[in-house]
């Protein structure tokens, strides 16, 4: 949720068209009011007849910056919520995986005794697909482990940078306007600064929750990798079994075909006229 950027200001109005509220709560969490308030400001500024085009453009630019920062704020808030959910769900997920790992491996699928070579070949193809999926999962989990290691370093650097920017924004917000500052432009500048402040605060909160999520999910990742490795091993064994069965079925069908061919050849030979006469003579 966005904070009410307009309400966070202490500068009152945009000229004759009052938009800012000195009495508003600076920690208001209503997102739509923040965005709607700034959009309303943009509309009022556009309609103003007492401002020249240069002043209007400068004010509108600052208000656009504020809206852009609100978008960033929302993105970081969503990321923080995701990391918090992952942290909270980690113990239950770990327990489920540990239970699965404690159970004996499942038995591979057995082909029906009357299954044809074509049917067994289809089952082999299914085993190949399962092995491919298991290997892809294992590879992805290895990549996730490396990603988390890299992210911890990136977060440390990004936190330092974001805190410096936040400190500067807080200092700028506390500053008094220059004597020659136009109230409208100064108010718009403070709006943009307040929005940036909230965006950086949301970013820092997301960094904290991301790190906490990695801490909470360390054992879970290890367990997931163990389970993935077991699935790869099982899938390899199953595929090898299907490959052996396909080879046996091919050999058996080839032998059956050879026997049938030999029988057909003999039957055909017996039906030949010369062979028939010889058979009659031998029968006398």
Set down the secondary structure blueprint:
Elements: H1 5-8, H2 31-47, H3 53-102, H4 117-174, H5 183-216, H6 218-270, H7 273-283
> What is the strand tally?
0
Mean pLDDT: 83
Rg computed from alpha carbons, rounded to a whole number of angstroms? 37 Å
- How large a portion of the residues is in β-strands, by DSSP E? under 5%
Elements, N to C (H/E): HHHHHHH
If helices are DSSP runs of H or I spanning 4 or more residues, what is the number of helices? 7
Largest sheet: none
| Residue share in helix | over 70%
Q: Which stretches are poorly predicted, pLDDT < 50 over at least 5 residues?
A: 1-30
Straight-line N-to-C gap: 108 Å
Q: Decide which structural class fits the backbone.
A: mainly alpha
Shape summary: elongated
List keywords for this structure.
284 residues; mainly alpha; disordered N terminus
Describe, in plain words, how this protein is organized in 3D.
Helix content is 80%, strand content 0%. The protein is an all-alpha fold and 284 residues long. α3 runs parallel beside α5 and α4 packs across α5. It is elongated, with a radius of gyration of 37 Å.
């Amino acid at each position: 949720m966005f904070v009410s950027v307009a309400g966070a200001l202490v500068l009152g109005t945009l000229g004759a068209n009052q938009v800012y509220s000195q009495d508003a709560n600076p920690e208001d969490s209503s997102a739509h009011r923040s965005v709607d308030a700034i959009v309303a400001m943009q509309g009022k500024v556009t309609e103003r007849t007492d401002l020249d085009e240069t002043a209007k453009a400068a004010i509108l630019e600052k208000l656009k910056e504020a809206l852009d920062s609100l978008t960033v704020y929302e993105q970081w808030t969503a990321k923080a919520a995701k990391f918090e959910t992952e942290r909270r769900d980690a113990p239950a997920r770990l327990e489920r995986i540990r239970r699965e790992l404690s159970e004996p491996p499942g038995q591979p699928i057995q082909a029906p005794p009357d299954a044809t070579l074509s049917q067994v070949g289809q089952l082999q193809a299914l085993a190949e697909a399962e092995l491919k999926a298991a290997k892809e999962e294992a590879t992805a989990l290895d990549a996730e482990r490396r990603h988390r290691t890299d992210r911890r370093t990136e977060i440390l650097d990004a936190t330092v940078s974001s805190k410096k920017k936040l400190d500067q924004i807080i200092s700028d917000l506390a500053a008094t306007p220059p004597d020659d500052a136009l109230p409208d432009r100064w108010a718009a500048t403070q709006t943009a600064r307040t929005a940036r402040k909230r965006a950086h605060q949301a970013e820092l909160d997301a960094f904290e929750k991301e790190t906490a999520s990695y801490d909470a999910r360390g054992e879970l990742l290890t367990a997931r990798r163990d389970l993935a490795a077991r699935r790869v091993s099982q899938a390899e064994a199953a595929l090898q079994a299907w490959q052996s069965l396909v080879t046996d079925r091919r050999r058996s069908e080839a032998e059956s075909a050879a026997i049938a061919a030999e029988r057909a050849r003999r039957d055909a030979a017996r039906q030949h006229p010369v062979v028939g006469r010889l058979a009659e003579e031998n029968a006398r």
